[in-house]
């Protein structure tokens, strides 16, 4: 098998980048990955790469780049190699204890923001991982009091660091099982991107996934186990008229709508992501009279 060390023979930036793209060929994101990793190694932005194609890459930089390319070729997500990933235009630290935030999850943020105005409201993000959803909401709604829970203390360490670096003080992080981690009060809205992939789904072998925490990806009962727990717990934790929004798999819309409807939720509907896939379901709690 060709090694990056053998393939990257040139010294100038343009040729090295082209050789790196060829080395990663086969991955859908080869071009972008080669560019992002070179930017990180050189400490330069994309404009620099475009403007200075003849820039001489030093030996040590080339070696560091080769090492990253090898790890990427072995499947490691670029986000973990960089230690940082962007979500909702916020730079977030990530590591192997946190899921890499996905662009389709921005739909959950959009839908949450569309439902409630800024003000002194209580909102929870269950299974916060890197803090992506909670911090995106906090950046848009500075008066919301946001609680963000996760079972993983290691993930919460990353989320707390992100909140500090982004200077978003209106998020409180708490460790525990879904709503059990939250304080006594009722909430105006609860959002979650829980694990929802069935344990035997071949998708789990896809690009990068074997490097992500299995506890962030997989749920029993065909991927629905955690969604069922969250809907049940949220129905006891939301105010009358409070919203619940949950991200799920493209094939799970009908099942999730049923779960909502059998738990006193009204106005239940599913929203599609930019690829046209059913991606999240939401509903409004109606307390029994
Ligand atoms: C799909 S990841 C979502 C991470 C982040 N919200 C995002 O969208 O990038 C699911 C998260 O749920 C957490 N989790 C799994 N089981 C949990 C439980 N029982 N209670 C709370 N969090 C849990 C995982 O640690 C993981 O961080």
Short description:
By secondary structure, this protein is of the alpha/beta class.
Number of E strands: 9
List bound small molecules: S-adenosylmethionine
| Helical content class | 25-40%
Give the helix tally: 12
The CATH topology of the largest domain is Rossmann fold
Write down the CATH class of the largest domain: Alpha Beta
The major beta sheet can be summarized as: 7 strands, mixed
Radius of gyration: 21 Å
Shape: elongated
**Secondary-structure content class:** alpha/beta
In terms of DSSP E residues, the strand content is 15-25%
Strand/helix succession? HHHHHHEEHEHEHEEHHEHEE
**How confident overall, as mean pLDDT?**
96
Question: Would you give an account of this structure?
Answer:
This protein is elongated. The chain has helices at residues 4-7, 13-23, 30-42, 46-51, 59-73, 78-82, 106-115, 132-140, 153-165, 214-217, 225-234, 253-261, and strands at residues 84-87, 90-93, 122-126, 145-150, 171-175, 187-192, 238-247, 265-272, 278-285. The model has no long low-confidence stretch (mean pLDDT 96). The strands form 2 sheets. It has a 7-stranded mixed sheet with strand order 5-4-3-6-7-9-8, with helices on both faces. Strands 1-2 form a two-stranded antiparallel ribbon. With 289 residues, it is of the alpha/beta class. The protein folds into 2 domains: 4-74, Helicase, Ruva Protein, domain 3 (Orthogonal Bundle); 88-285, Rossmann fold. Strand 3 (122-126), helix 8 and strand 4 form a beta-alpha-beta unit. The protein contains 12 helices and 9 strands. It binds S-adenosylmethionine. The site of S-adenosylmethionine has 22 residues, from helix 8, strand 4 and helix 10.
């Amino acid at each position: 098998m060709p090694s990056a060390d053998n393939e990257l023979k040139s010294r100038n930036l343009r040729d090295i980048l082209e050789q790196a793209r060829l080395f990663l060929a086969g991955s859908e994101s080869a071009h972008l990955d080669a560019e992002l990793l070179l930017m990180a190694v050189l400490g330069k932005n994309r404009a620099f790469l475009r403007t200075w194609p003849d820039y001489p890459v030093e030996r040590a930089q080339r070696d560091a780049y080769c090492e990253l390319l090898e790890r990427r070729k072995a499947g490691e997500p670029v986000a973990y190699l960089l230690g940082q990933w962007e979500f909702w235009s916020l730079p977030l630290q990530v590591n192997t204890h946190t899921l890499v935030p996905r662009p389709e999850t921005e739909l959950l943020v959009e839908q949450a923001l569309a439902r409630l105005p800024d003000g002194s409201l209580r909102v929870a993000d269950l299974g916060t991982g890197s803090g992506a959803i909670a911090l995106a909401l906090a950046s848009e709604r500075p008066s919301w009091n946001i609680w963000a829970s996760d079972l993983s203390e290691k993930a919460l360490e990353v989320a707390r660091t992100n909140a500090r670096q982004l200077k978003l003080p209106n998020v409180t992080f708490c460790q525990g099982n879904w709503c059990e981690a939250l304080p006594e009060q009722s909430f105006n809205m609860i959002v979650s991107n829980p694990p929802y992939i069935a344990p035997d789904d071949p998708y789990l072998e896809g690009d990068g996934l074997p490097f992500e925490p299995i506890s962030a990806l997989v749920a029993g009962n065909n991927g629905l186990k955690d969604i069922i727990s969250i809907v049940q717990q949220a129905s006891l934790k939301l105010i009358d008229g409070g919203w619940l929004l949950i991200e799920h798999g493209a094939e799970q819309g009908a099942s999730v709508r049923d779960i909502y409807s059998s738990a006193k939720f009204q106005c239940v509907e599913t929203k599609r992501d930019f690829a046209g896939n059913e991606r999240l379901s939401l509903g409004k709690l109606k307390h029994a009279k």
